[in-house]
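thread from #wetlab-drylab

HS: before we spend reagent money on co-crystallization trials with manganese (II) ion, can we at least see a predicted complex? here's what I'd submit
DV: go for it
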Amino acid sequence: MIVVMKPGATEKDIQHVVALVRDFGLKEHVIHGTDRTVIACIGDKRMVDKGAIENAPMVEKIVPILAPYKMASVEVKRTRTEVAIGPKKFPVGGKKIGVIAGPCAVEGRDQLLRVAEAVAAAGAIGLRGGAYKPRTSPYSFQGLGEEGLKLLEEARNATGLAIVTEATGLEQMDAVAEVADVVQIGARNMQHYPLLEAAGKCGKPVLLKRGPSAKIDEWLLACEYVINAGNHQVILCERGIRTFENYVRNTLALAVIPALRERTHLPVIIDPSHGTGHAHMVPSMCQAAVAAGADGLLIEVHHDPEHALSDGAQSLTPDVFAEMMKTLKRIANAVGREI
Ligand code: PEP
Ligand code: MN
């Protein structure tokens, strides 16, 4: 962090800032330029109340040097994190691109097992499906709850797929973490800090979706809550953000892939189902995500989208999914990855 003083700052102003910097446990290095003075601060600046220094007399601005997040940052860990998921310990974040697919919501035994078997046969490593659903309307299907969790367990036993399912509240965390191989924290809950801390203590890898209006720094700071609570197994998932556009449900921000790679060692996966809202757009966005360096995909698949209890419009049929996987394998190979 560098404190830039205004032109004309007196020695008294400078010493006042130096004293504040020392109060925060940092060391100062004062550099006198021809028309202004800057103070470089050395030490861990994350605990510093920057406002206190910014408000001091004759301070022009503060320029941060390090990212505000710590454990998620490449400044702290340069090697990329691989998260092993499910009974077969599929790695996410290495050379292999992990595809996680399944219905938006667990609706019943027949539906879940049918879709699970189809996506496993096409090369998915994980089965997604909400037992607890965060729905915009309280009158929409809210999920099967505990019964849904039991069905997910059965589907894992039948297919060997890693189960990815959401905890929408603190009260479900234990039950969800017991069954899930990856606990999903949904977009709406990205800034539910007590839930993030609970995910940090749940003992399972966590898939953290980006909030619909969250900036990258806020998202990475949300990760920091999970890691800081003791869980380093975090996968980031872009699922589209809210913009003025209405030809899509959300605007899928694929540029987060290179942006996150620069900032964090954590794996990044893309959810083009919520990121577009339209099934016909999903295959091309999956292709783009793989080409751009995504570590995985989260895709909604339903055997009968027209009668799905949630998100049918964005769900692929198993046939379309299987066809798409063939193309994705070729694209992955072209960019030095594997599916
Ligand atoms: C989901 O994955 O079904 C879901 C509810 O996603 P999001 O939190 O991204 O809206
Ligand atoms: Mn959904």
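DV: The chain has two domains: 2-63, 83-334.
HS: ok that's useful, forwarding to the group
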